[in-house]
Amino acid sequence: MVAPLKLGIAGLGTVGAEVVRLIETQARVLAGRSGRGIRVVAVTARSKAKKRSVDLRGVEWVKDPLALATHPGIDCFVELMGGAGDPALAAVEAALNAGKSVVTANKALLAKHGLKLAKAAEKHGGALNFEAAVGAAIPVIKTLREGLAGTGISRVYGILNGTCNYILTRMEQEGLSFAECLKDAQRLGYAEANPSFDVDGHDTAQKLAILASLAFGTKVAQSAVYVEGISSIAPEDLRAAADLGYRVKLLGVAVRTATGIEQRVHPTMVPKSSSIAQVMGVTNAVTIDGEGIPPITLVGPGAGEQRPRPPWWPTSPTLRAASAPIRSAGRSRSCATPGRRRWSATRAATTSASWRAISPARRPRSRPGSPSRRFRSSRSCSVIPMAGSRRQMARRCPCPSF
Ligand code: HSE
């Protein structure tokens, strides 16, 4: 009989409380799937006194995240506090340095410190899992890290921010203003505490940086992403695009070019007939163009309270953290695709192998600056960035190949 995986959860907001509830109510299913029970043994949050919807009787309250991260009674530290800096950073580093596994939904932390954390995980033998950080319910991290581990990837793009897609959808369908739609997105709980993070494209940029690093084996670098948001888009822009046979979406695009990895976030005109154009409301979608395979598109709910329950959010990576030590304990298998990339099969499921996939000498350069200028003048583009000017938009190339 394998001992249950003992979790310490830092952060008991909407997501943290839901994870505690899920682990409690789905205990049998989770144990069946991971081959091991999962128990929440300790928690921490900003306020102990706050009324919560979950029963925390029998769960130890630890005074601060750092103490919880290194708590001798936990195997896995679940970080659901958010933020790129401390206390999340210090706590995750401490947990990894103590050899514990970490599950986090913190895209800001990963976009800024992902490689450093992955290295710490590898050094000390823990797992670093973060499925919920990108694409909400869509298992895109697992797809890139494991499912497509042997496939060369040429482009990853998608709708990565539910708030923006919700706003653009309502503006298009109901002719409403940007401000009205943003207000509703906030009321419905889609937007971040600071909505400019969503509408100015930074949330998409963080998620794109994580996807690009997994897809191309590059260092996670949010600062290398060209970012343009949707706040200057007016209903007449959407009508003008519609007249030309397009719909406007905020896309995150990472593409391998001859000179490096181009990463950009901007409003984009996509042909109405394309699959990405059908993605409406708060839904997210990610398309992966791989060498020798047709494009793979994953679609799923992206933001808000009505996001589906299992198997997403941290419970799914928690399951992986639970099962990895059993299923791969001590075994390390090195795999190679001739002339392409190497990765460790054991660690591919659990730590930073994907972030180390291409050796530094072979690693494509991530280029800061404004890659979209070149893209905008291309006649062979498959998606068309908008720059806000209707005159410019009317001059853009048609792109039947998208
Ligand atoms: N504010 C984010 C979004 C939440 O709208 O997509 C999920 O990351």
Give the integer mean of the pLDDT values: 79
Share of helix, binned: 25-40%
Q: Globular, elongated, flat, extended or rod-shaped: what is the shape?
A: globular
> What small ligands are held by the chains?
L-homoserine
Regions with pLDDT < 50 over 5+ consecutive residues? 306-313, 323-383, 387-402
N- to C-terminal distance: 53 Å
**Compute the gyration radius: what is it?**
21 Å
Biggest sheet details: 7 strands, mixed
Number of strands: 15
**Helix/sheet category:** alpha/beta
Task: Classify the beta-strand content into a percent band.
Answer: 15-25%
Give the SSE order as H and E letters.
EHHEEHEHEHEHEHHHHEHEEEEHEEHHEH
Per DSSP, the total helix count is 15
Tell me about this structure.
This protein is of the alpha/beta class and 402 residues long. It is 35% helix and 20% strand. The chain contains 15 helices and 15 strands. The chain has helices at residues 14-25, 27-34, 65-69, 88-97, 107-124, 140-147, 162-174, 178-187, 196-199, 202-216, 235-243, 315-327, 345-348, 372-377, 390-395, and strands at residues 5-10, 38-44, 60-61, 76-79, 101-104, 128-129, 153-159, 226-227, 246-257, 260-271, 283-290, 296-301, 334-336, 342-344, 384-385. Strands 7, 8, 9, 10, 11, 12 and 15 form a 7-stranded mixed beta sheet that branches. Helix 4 (88-97) packs parallel to helix 5 and helix 5 (107-124) packs parallel to helix 10 (202-216). The termini are far apart. The relative contact order is 0.15. Mean pLDDT is 79; it is low at 306-313, 323-383 and 387-402. The structure holds L-homoserine. The site of L-homoserine (HSE) has 11 residues, from helix 7.
